[in-house]
Amino acid sequence: MSSNKRTADLEISVAPIETPTCEAMRAALVIHPGPGVTCTSTSPGESARGGTYALLNEETTEALLHQHESARSAPGIKCFSSQLPVNTPNEDRCSTHLLSEADLAGLVESAIRGPGGFWRAWDELVDGKKADDELRSSWVMSSVIDGLARGEVADTINRVLHASLAFALGCQENRDDGSIKSIITKVYEQIDQAIISAPQNFLNPNPCTPASTLLPPGCTALLGAAGLLYPSSGAVAATVLLDLTRQRVYVASLGDCRVLLGWKDEHGKWGTKDTGVGHTVKNEKEIELLMKRHQNESRDQLISPINGFIKGMASHTRCFGKPDSKVPPLHDDRNEPYFFHDRSMRALGILLPKIPTQQDLPGAPYILSTPEVACTVLEKKGAKLKFIVLATDGVTDRLSSKEIVHLVAGQLERSAPVSPLTDDNPATGLIRAAIGGGDPRTRQILLSLGAPMGRAMRDDMTVT
């Protein structure tokens, strides 16, 4: 960073805040005058870690806030997105697609020509769609995706999720609320199945997993490659489908990405509906469901007393991918547990965590891929749906549902601007509120921290 991008130096001492599940450490800042932005941190059983970072000036932090924002339009709808990564590379993904009924029919027709025909048609549809075409759209699809232990699986899901939903909707002739909810659920589940079955199918000359009839051509191969190359990685997601013709909104959540619906009634009062319960070990209802599915195992056998994770491996009760924590691996001809990338890592001398065995996962799967799906109308009982917020946990861990509604509603009203949500892009405004709020100094400090301390302080942030 050049010298003109720096401001006065500070010394930052960091004290850890322990969580019941020992997830990524969160830290509290104590700021003292001193030379350089210096961070130190210790957690139980670990030596001190930290670093010194250049303190960015306000101009640079503002540029970072606005670097990954975008806006789209559909009939009566504006779509805003923004991201603020901390991981390198960013593990969050987001996408919004505006499609017409003719688009859905065209995708189904292109699938007759095989994988090449379908994906060429999808890319042309996404990249070549003009603003005038989007204004004639009848479907709006938006998703946020948070990668787990790398971003490659999230990247693949971001590539195929909306294409798969569009293909499945196009194949469905008679659509009602029940059939559309079923399509969303099955697409999520079959995407996951394609990922987690890849290691077994790679070794087995006669794969036992049937090819998906709901996913478009070539989709299973794309997802299978991600499962082979990154068996320890996965993703959580949230998706919103707006049916503008029938005035319906469908919401799906898997993991701890959240969707909030903001309503305004006939008296001008605002309310919210927070969809998704958070599919993690922090949610006692999810633990109860896990114990019902595995009644032969005690709570301590299911949830590790050491780190609070499922079988000591995963904090999410539902997610895409992570085949090494969902199914025991097959064995190769040397009777070694097999995951595609493990041998190359061992050859380089990289030590890996213990690979699960059949004894570790006797009742697999312990982690599900079934999303929580809901449907509602855009107007009911005198209340109108005014906004929808999709966000990854980097935002919702810092802002409550009430705070998000208060901030966005204030932005929409405009009669009384709500600080700090003064950005033209409301998604950027929510990220601003989540990282320092009305205190630009704190935001400067947080955005100045690089790896590893930046990740200890916050997660990647994505809002749509």
TrEMBL record:
Q: What is this protein called?
A: Phosphatase 2C-like domain-containing protein
Lineage top rank: taxon: Eukaryota
SUPFAM superfamilies noted in UniProt: PP2C-like (SSF81606)
Lineage runs: Eukaryota, Fungi, Dikarya, Basidiomycota, Agaricomycotina
- Where's the PPM-type phosphatase domain? 138-464
One Gene Ontology term of the molecular function aspect: protein serine/threonine phosphatase activity
Family matches, as InterPro entries = PP2C, PPM-type-like_dom_sf, PPM-type_phosphatase-like_dom
What Pfam families does UniProt report for this protein, alphabetically? PP2C
Organism in which the protein naturally occurs: Dioszegia hungarica
